[in-house]
TrEMBL record:
Gene3D superfamilies (alphabetical): 3.10.450.50
Protein known as: Nuclear transport factor 2 family protein
Domain of life, per lineage: Bacteria
InterPro entries to which the protein is assigned, alphabetical: NTF2-like_dom_sf
Organism annotation: Rapidithrix thailandica
Length: 64
């Protein structure tokens, strides 16, 4: 399978999990370790900040 098709497949899976609020499936699409940072005032929006792993990603989507 070409890389472009693999990417499309992952995006489709992501959107499907997001649409169906399947948090466990969505989180599994992420690498076990990540470096994800959303800048901003965390006192105003608790979902801002740094994420380092799948558990953090799950917490992020729970907050949203």
């Amino acid at each position: 399978m070409m890389q472009t098709e693999k990417t499309k497949q992952v995006v489709r899976q992501f959107l499907q999990h997001l649409t169906h609020r399947n948090l466990s499936g969505l989180v599994k699409l992420f690498s076990e370790e990540i470096d994800w940072y959303i800048p901003g005032n965390q006192q105003r929006a608790v979902w801002l900040g740094r994420r380092k792993n799948r558990e953090d990603i799950g917490a992020f989507y729970e907050l949203l």
